[in-house]
Amino acid sequence: MKEITLWFKRxxxxxxxxxxxxxxxxxxxxxxxxxxxxxxxxxxxxxxxxGCGLGRSMSLLARGEIQASWSMHPLxxxxxxxxxxxxxxxxxxxxxxxxxx
Length: 101
What we know:
By secondary structure, this protein is an all-alpha fold. The protein contains 6 helices and no strands.
């Protein structure tokens, strides 16, 4: 049990964050009328934001709806690639170094 606890303590917080964000994206219902938003521009009352719809678009992409994903936000594929690359890099660094950086 001590070994498992030590292994979890060595996980970088950023890796946990990115894996959690991908899991959250998979649980988003892109067809819902109202959605939760952490967007500061939306909070200030602006109706347009360059990232608006990115999470819902990534959710559609994860479900295989490529056309709908592209029409909602064309950068969803790039965002998925960047997040997956970062997760891969963090896991690779976890295996090779203890500095996580």
